[in-house]
Amino acid sequence: MVSLRYFKCLYHWARNTPNHLVRLETGYNHIEVEIVKRMFLWLNKVNNMPDYRLPRICMERLRALDKWPDNKVYYNWFTQLKEKLVVVGMREYMDINNRCAVKRVLGNLIEKFSNHHVSRDVEAAINSRYNSFYRNISTLGLGEQYLEIPNSLSKRRIISQLRKVLGCYAGKMAFVDDTRINWDKVRLAAKKHHENVKEVMDKSLKVLDECEKKSYEGLSHNEASYVVAKCIKDGYVQENIKWFF
After folding, report:
1. Which of 9, 38, 129, 135 has the most CB atoms within 10 Å of its CB?
2. Whole-structure pTM value
3. Which residues are 180's β-sheet partners?
4. Residue in 53, 126, 39, 41 with CA at minimum distance from that of residue 83
5. What does each C-alpha distance from 124 to 19, 118, 234 come to in angstroms?
6. Dihedral sign, Cα of residue 196, residue 200, residue 203, residue 208
7. 9 or 229: which carries more pLDDT confidence?
């Protein structure tokens, strides 16, 4: 969708960032909320038309086909809206033709649909393998405070990227391929970084040897990246080696 691509471009997020993470991070409603709102308002407008108006005639025909056993949802606008309202328990509002009543229930309809999609996005974020740590740092639909702070776009952009970068750095550097750790690449980076001080390089390689002995089975890409980085960092701290990742 254009709106989600806009946020990805604005904050320089990866193009493959899942849409549910974009919506949770920005607080942007699912587009279906606006679609259902407009469908509901159009239905009410048609219901208030005289019987001889073509939109009213067509709507009554769709309403009749909705009760037909061989009704095709794909071709029936009325059935599509009905099924959307059934999801949030508002099927009875399909027959409202009082404009005052519509205004009263419209806010409730939008709120229910928004909550419905937020709950689906939260569930997707909790079970996501794209970034399994996002659920630990996100308010999960309650709004991210850093976006509300009156700071420059560049600062908000940096914060947002840091929230999503976990695991990506290791993948870009080829340290972690899917869930497999490329220890040869990690050692090569350590040797390159400490090539001027052999004693420090030896300590660094010793830390990597200890980390390699640990098991990383059953971890996702992000989890493996985090556990490996933490192991190396803790080892470097113990050996008094400057952390370079």
Report:
1. 135
2. 0.64
3. 177
4. 39
5. 10, 10, 32
6. negative
7. 9
